[in-house]
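Reading a protein record of the kind used here takes only a little practice. The record below shows the convention in full:
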Amino acid sequence: MNIPNLLNINFSGKVEDKKSTARRPYLAPQKPDTFEHTNINKQESKKDSLLTKISNLYNQATPAKLDVFGENLAKDEKLDEKKLQGLMNDMSTSDTLYFTLERAKYDDKNNYLLRGIITEDDEADENIKLLDKDLNVLEQESRRVNVDDEGYPVSKKILTQDFRTNTFCETKFEYTPEGYPIMSKAVKIKRDAQNRLLRKETYEKSDVEGMFNVKYEFPNGKSRQISKAYIDKNGHTIVEKDMRSSDMTRTQYRYEDDPKGNRIVDYKITTADGKVLMNQSQSFEVLGENKFRSSRNDKTYMIEFNKKNNSIDITDEKKKETSQIELTDYIDGNEEKIINVLKKFPGDELINLGNKVSCINEIENKLDGLCVTHMFDSDNGIWTTGFLTVSDDPFIFLHELGHATDSCDKNVKLVRNEDGNLEKKVIGMISDDDNFKKIYSEESKNFLKEFPTNEREHIDYFLNNNIDGAKNQGKKETVAETNAILNTYQSTGLLGIRTQYLQQHFPKTIAYLSEKLVPSK
């Protein structure tokens, strides 16, 4: 597969446009492409042309084959066998073992993924084409994995060319000792329908674990820093973002904390026509070893870890009401470790914890975090409560607490399912909210329309509503992740890119959920 290298683009000089010399405003409202255009002529190199001829001769001698599942799918769907064979021949190299054909995950059963498998490992080298129902190529992708002397993956590079949006992307991953791929850098080139350059996007790991520096560069020589995270000379962690989604909804975000644990979070979401959907300002003050104050807009909470009563006392200073979490038998495992992370939480989240969660199980590996919803009988019927399994990572803990806020301290009713059978249903879950589902669906469609498979996979956790057979799981994970995003920054490198994409491209969803999860009014 011949994917041209389009990444070596320098925007430092003036760009001339033969079609128009008129200057256009820089990133005018609602129109992301209103900067000067340029034309780049593409030419196939002699080397690529020769390799293509050699590959064609090889494929004529040894035609590529589909696996059994792919053959059956092609027959069942009555796909054009000759056209499909031609596509496989074009993709095949001397290293190709076989091909697979499957339904594309995100495209409502209209599209297919054709994969040329080069290695049999779990992290396989692959050539991939996304095809429509008539087997026209919508997107092509090359995935190559580098391994060490013992065969363990070290790095991975993915080259993606999306013909629908005229986008080319190079994405690089590094593997952790445990075998997890972490995105280290991505460069993306966007062009319009006339193949004129629109912008270059660069994603690079920042000095803050889990955060990316994201920069857009334009043909007129200007640039925009979309996301930036750093640690200043005083030891303050600072995260700044100014991002727009595909419909030009704007997210403005700033997080800052100091070595003592004091912090501020300012978070605003505004539509393209100027309507403010969310405007939150938070603060967290360390008043002593066991005393803290948090605020969210005009709501303030005094938080005290009471050693005498072995409890956490949270006082709503406006309502003059105190909530209490009794810690005796509440934490299973390293209690000090969990209490230390709870000392970083705002008052409203601690109140949610006390209302929604009956037990916390401390674990070592933060990636094994889990929220289990239990049902119990009471005088008022069947209700739910949450059991959390968490480590001391604030973001992941708040994610799991988001699941509890979604599904716990709620009533359970017997309802008839789609098959007409009675089943237990938790009533009033946030992830079942009709307005949430409508907003989430609209932003999901906008995202899928604009982004290729590789970038879709960044947020598969939120798009896939059948994770491990769990219905609506993607929506539930979106609710949980939003709960964490509203309070702190993502601090786990493996999960960083998924949070970055959700925060930028689902702003209306986040704004709506904010008042459901931690009301500021």
About this structure: Residues 59-135 form one domain. The mean pLDDT is 87.
